[in-house]
């Protein structure tokens, strides 16, 4: 009897260990570019431009009910009518002062990482009506040592604080598929490198990354869309704070921007909210699954490959159906239906101020940007290809030697048959936190530093098997013409 009990306990522990590495990654293409943000600017126009993915039911007043009522989704699993959005990225030319939209390579990947609390067999699905924001649009400085201290020290101040974890949850991964040895890890650096560094080192663009908090207090979504959630002890994994005991699905966004298209041109990259530092990068999420279906998927879709094809519950639509799904034209507010989203003006859409240091104040939504040749608000980036990513490693790294993790990559210029070699885990010497100083409009204020991975490692576009196997998904962006708005308001669902 005792032997059987011990065997059962050992089996259970193995099951928990395997489950902790389970995940799936959801490919989504752009459904629209618009100054719409129902979480912060409910029923009105947002202060800055967003790249939006998911349900066609998205609008300035959408909640879970409206998303579920959408006719289609730009994500590849038809059951996922969630809304995922982040600010777009622009380049300002120093000669003309004009802003140009940077091409978003292929759309985005939303990872659903299944990381239950210790001793628990599963995670809790997002409830109906659930909403949250990760990141702080007003932040302009990273206030902690660079590179990060070892995770073994994250149990003492100031690293055991939610303030640190919110900033450590941002990543700007420099990509160069021609040089596998230069591979960087997910959440590798927490500020956007300056343009000189990007031109010299990031030949395949930059992957913007965002880890969402996964610990919930069980309460309804508050007005700030943040205070009901907290990060676990290691940002993407670890233990939840006592007041936030419920472990939900862990969301992780990846979006690749083709910054190298502007190599050799003087200017600066600025996130749509007026942030040239990257520290104010943020993302939004509204639950758009049937709650019971998401719980079933969270319990059963535990294959370590991360492929949506490996979960029999998912209905996967052809890529063409995803790219054909746009935000309903009637959901675009009339004042911004003809707003120029792709650039050409000397101000960002909505005209948010560009702030380099300190803590920016919330902006007030401005009138649409003017242009001699207006373009639709949701004109999407030019068609491009993306290689689907694998899961960020679920291993907890406590020093500079990081566990290998899932590859993530996107480019249209690299031979897909080329194999990447495993990146070296040798870490460069630690350097002090860069001083941030005010900068003129045409100068980026972020210092280039040598960083090491804070949590994960990734590989290049074409990879050898490390912990998981990569598959290739080609994603093409699409354009949406928005002409008029049919006014409608709904009360958002709450928990």
From TrEMBL:
Keywords: Signal. The keyword 4Fe-4S does not apply. It holds the Pfam family DUF1996. Residues 365-442 are annotated as: Disordered. InterPro entries: DUF1996. Residues 1-22 form the signal peptide. It comes from the Eukaryota. Residues 365-441 have a biased composition (Low complexity). Residues 37-289 form the DUF1996 domain. This is DUF1996 domain-containing protein.
